[in-house]
Write a structure and sequence with these properties.
The structure is a single chain. With 244 residues, the chain is an alpha/beta fold. It has two domains: 8-24 and 105-243, HAD superfamily/HAD-like (Rossmann fold, 3-Layer(aba) Sandwich); 25-102, Orthogonal Bundle (DNA polymerase, domain 1). The chain has ten helices and six strands. The protein has helices at residues 25-37, 46-63, 69-83, 90-97, 109-117, 130-140, 150-153, 160-172, 187-196, 232-243; strands at residues 13-16, 121-126, 146-149, 180-184, 200-204, 227-229. Helix 2 (46-63) packs across helix 3.
Length: 244
């Protein structure tokens, strides 16, 4: 479903957020946090856990923009342990900090990426470190034309620098920014800053029909993506339909 007069066939490259868009990070987070949660006197709901994680991660990334993502996860673990009244377990915290490789891909991700790769250059723009993404990449099933991580830049989305680096990479590939469509679940991390520098965006609304923002902070301002789909498969279907 589109929100503007844009068409998918006008783009030559797609850039993707990974975690929340391609990788089911909420399922991964909940599974990785379960060893902590079993020690709570009254287990919080999944909604409460994800909302608490969103705040903890956001605080850690804002305070430590150059820290690699495993350190962000470690700091978030400590915040959550304090929030839920659990003593820190260093071994469990270390395991959580390196759990990204266990987080599953959404069921439609690999096939949709393969279909989209027939028509577009594919780019990753992720709040992650290179080693963690390498573990997730095995679940995605494609090779990307460019991978840009928070580790490369020393900053985390929604920092504008991450999107400026994305535009620079696209221009180095011989394309204007108008030929790039940024594809992401998070309005906060991706759509607001991407639209602020003039990029077109496609919202993969993985939480359609669910209350709240889950593990993602609420956007600080209203934003209107150019397209909205509830799965990546819907985006691939629409792209194929446009091109016949």
């Amino acid at each position: 479903m589109t929100g503007t007069s844009s068409t998918l066939s006008q783009f030559a490259a797609l850039s993707f957020d990974c975690y929340g868009t391609l990788i089911d990070w909420e399922t991964g987070l909940l599974e990785a946090l379960e060893p902590m949660l079993v020690h709570t006197s009254q287990r919080p709901s999944n909604t409460q856990v994800l909302q608490a994680y969103a705040a903890a991660e956001g605080e850690a990334e804002a305070a430590h923009p150059a820290a690699p993502y495993p350190e962000i996860l470690s700091r978030a673990w400590l915040t959550l342990a304090n929030r839920f009244g659990i003593a820190d377990d260093e071994a469990e915290r270390e395991r959580f900090a390196h759990s990204v490789g266990n987080w599953p891909a959404f069921p439609d991700t690999s096939d949709a990426l393969k279909r989209l790769q027939r028509r577009y250059k594919l780019i990753i723009l992720s709040n992650i470190d290179r080693a963690s993404f390498a573990m997730s990449k095995r679940r995605l099933g494609v090779d990307f034309d460019r991978i840009i991580t928070a580790q490369d830049l020393g900053s985390y989305k929604p920092d504008p620098r991450n999107f400026e680096a994305l535009v620079a990479a696209v221009e180095e590939m011989g394309m204007a920014r108008q030929k790039l469509l940024h594809v992401a679940q998070s309005l906060y991390h991706d759509h607001v800053p991407a639209k602020a520098i003039g990029l077109s965006t496609a919202w993969i609304d993985r939480r359609a029909g669910m209350a709240g923002g889950g593990a993602t902070l609420a956007p600080r301002e209203e934003v209107q993506p150019n397209f909205r789909f509830t799965t990546l498969a819907e985006l691939a279907d629409a792209a194929e339909a446009e091109r016949g």
